[in-house]
Amino acid sequence: MTEDxxxxxxxxxxxxxxxxxSRRDVRSHFIDKRIPDDILVNILNAAHHAxxxxxxxxxxxxxxxxxxxxxxxxQSFTKEREKSIPMLDNDLEKQDKYVKLKLEGILExxxxxCVTYNPEKFGPFILGRTSIPETGEYSVCCxxxxxxxxxxxxxxxxxxxxxxxxxxxxKILNIPNHVKPIAYLCLGYVNKFExxxxxxxxxxxxxxxxxxxxxxxxxxxxxxxxxxxxNTIIQGLDDDPxx
Amino acid sequence: MTEDxxxxxxxxxxxxxxxxxSRRDVRSHFIDKRIPDDILVNILNAAHHAxxxxxxxxxxxxxxxxxxxxxxxxQSFTKEREKSIPMLDNDLEKQDKYVKLKLEGILExxxxxCVTYNPEKFGPFILGRTSIPETGEYSVCCxxxxxxxxxxxxxxxxxxxxxxxxxxxxKILNIPNHVKPIAYLCLGYVNKFExxxxxxxxxxxxxxxxxxxxxxxxxxxxxxxxxxxxNTIIQGLDDDPxx
Lengths: 243, 243
Fold this sequence. Notes:
The structure is a homodimer of 243-residue chains.
Chain A: H1 10-22, H2 37-48, E1 59-64, H3 67-84, H4 92-100, E2 111-117, H5 135-153, E3 156-160, H6 166-173, E4 180-189, H7 198-201, E5 214-216, H8 228-237
Antiparallel strand pairs in A: 1-2, 2-4, 3-4
Helix pairs in contact in A: 1-5, 2-5, 3-6
């Protein structure tokens, strides 16, 4: 890597933003097409170059193609989803919607990846993890987002299945007790990327406007002086939150 | 957004990988140059378009320029770092190295951003968060990585300061108790991006080779059949882990 990496051409910059804005959590549209080995490795290498607290690189990636394993994970999903349905007993309309949503593509996707966190790697002292231990797990999430964006740039869809039992995953994949599964991802080529998130399209929730999530100087916005121009630009985006 | 978002040109794809591989955790090299409002908003909007469990978008961003606030955060850093030094009493050489490292650029960077997690937003029922509650925090981390990569593409350095007290941050920034600070970021233009992580250059830790973090079918690699070609490509990268 050389100095020319420092500045981005317009097309390169647009590539980054394109991946960010067109990335979707994919549950449908997976097609029967293998991910080439070199593309898969590119995506994994992007994940491996994420930031990590104290350069601890505490992630592992378990790559899964085995149908029996996928079926066991799917069973865990089905069980966990069943358990969650009664939590919506006070809102039967939402419960009905929830039951009908497609929430995973475990069997249809080419490759599943379980991403895990190993707190003992390079430990016990991890620089920067002494005050906030969760920063170890946070590092793994940064790696997952790198993986997701790289996959999108390669035209590969990724779906994060979070309705799973951590204990089931440990058992199915022989993961030691001190290692924590963080994400179970489904990767595969798709026949299309949706323009909006499925949960937005289905009316489950809508995208928050940007100004709702921005605060100036402190949570209560008591010092907005000096932020007028920023605020004006943010509010300009509020008219079209999908932009 | 239209259909042409689906495929990436070579330059666009390279842009994504360039951001991933040249992103650094910046503590030094900040220069005295303001981040333009529109660039700042681009970066925040990229963060806001991260994936989130159940489309819950549970993040908030507190933007900080106020010097008094920055000084209070710096004090929290200094205090927390002091507390961590004795943890290396059994390795005095490493302790000496630790004390000399520059680990934050709170005062030198143009803008600080505290990124927080609000578990109550759109709740109490969050689709996909029923089995693994941590997925809410994980969503915020995906937003942080989007922010980090967008900043890199804009030529702006980001440093994540994790040696801080969550309680101090809550008090300094008037963050309600139910909202959890996830990251404290320092953003600013820099006079250069280092080619390697500071902690790698200083010999603190080295980059793990990719093959160390990849497992086939399960943690114990008992089913490597069918993964030979992938494995060969991964091992090819091991000769130069910085690639």
